[in-house]
Design goal:
Elements lengths: L2 H22 L6 H19 L12 H14 L4 E3 L6 E5 L36 E5 H15 L17 H9 L9 H46 L14 E2 L6 E8 L7 E5 L5 E2 L1 H19 L1
Helix pairs in contact: 1-2, 1-5, 2-3, 2-4, 3-4, 4-5
């Protein structure tokens, strides 16, 4: 993979990690995080649309990149347009939005193309065919972040309460993800969700191990024997119900499922009737995806 593509992947990743954090909380010492997200996003966008204009070997600051996008509305109106009825807001058109051009999902993928986003070769569902760049709001955000980042007091503002990032600044930052060089926020959110679910699953397993040790083998055997009567097996009215499964913690065939994974790989979502290990939908789906990847790998 070309170095510039790898670099843009890193920029998109940095943007996504920082932007998702800001989406969750933009009030706690967020200035540096905002600047990192904005600069990496703008460099990725400009490098894709106008290679070399982002600055090499040293990239331009975010304010300069925003100015460049603003200037392109007169120089390249087919690429950058003014947003109707909005002051200092510009729209970068998707290259596949023109009549007769293939849809983003059908466009051939080539190394270094705009389709070469960090996480996917296809446009995420629901993404607009243009990227909204609110230059005015993003420049205003930089006016907020720069004094804090550089530990300075600007003129008469020294005696005033410092400004803070606002939700509108974060919304303008998140809107940049519509550009094909990014398309990174959804995957970052999913990664964070799965990471949180994995940590919770580890805690569930630790608790289940303690339970199994505390109750002893005799009680565990008794619970396992009673599991069949407590579990609802498949019936003609509910053929999709899962049979009792082996618990990954205690090893007894006593895992009772309330449902299954999203890929129908027979990974149960529920609780062990012996050690009370609970498997969440997120973990079941992650296991199912891994099983599917292994199946495809063996087939290919």
């Amino acid at each position: 993979m070309p170095d510039d593509v790898v670099m843009n992947h890193r920029r998109a990743r940095t943007y996504a990690v920082c932007a998702v954090k800001l989406d969750e909380d933009h009030t706690d010492a967020a200035e540096g995080t905002f600047d990192a997200a904005l600069t990496n996003a703008l460099v990725a966008i400009v490098a894709s649309e106008w290679p070399g204009k982002e600055g090499k070997p040293f990239t331009k600051p975010a304010s300069k990149l925003l100015g460049l996008i603003r200037e392109k509305v007169d120089k390249e109106p087919r690429v950058v347009q003014r947003a109707p009825d909005e002051n200092d807001v510009f729209l970068i058109r998707d290259p596949h939005a023109d009549d007769g051009a293939p849809d983003a999902e059908e466009a051939p993928v080539t190394e270094g193309s705009l389709a070469d986003s960090i996480f996917s070769w296809q446009r995420p569902a629901g993404q607009p065919l243009e990227t909204r760049v609110d230059v005015g709001t993003l420049l205003d955000a930089l006016d907020v972040t720069q004094p804090v980042r550089h530990a300075r007091e600007d003129g008469d503002e020294a005696d005033e309460k410092p400004r803070l990032l606002e939700r509108r600044h974060v919304e303008a930052l998140l809107a940049l993800d519509s550009h094909p060089s990014l398309w990174a926020l959804d995957m970052e959110r999913e990664d964070r969700y799965e990471d949180s679910a994995q940590k919770q699953d580890e805690r569930e397993m630790e608790q289940a191990h303690r339970t199994r040790k505390r109750i002893g083998k005799e009680e565990a055997d008794r619970r396992a024997a009673a599991a069949a009567d407590l579990h609802t097996s498949p019936t003609p009215d509910d053929p999709s119900a899962l049979e009792l499964q082996e618990c990954p913690v205690c090893g007894y065939e006593a895992f009772s499922s309330d449902g299954g994974d999203e890929l129908s790989m027979q990974v149960g979502i529920g609780e062990c009737l012996v050690c009370h290990y609970r498997r969440s939908p997120a973990i079941a789906n992650a296991i199912a995806r891994e099983m599917e990847w292994e199946r495809r790998w063996e087939r290919d």
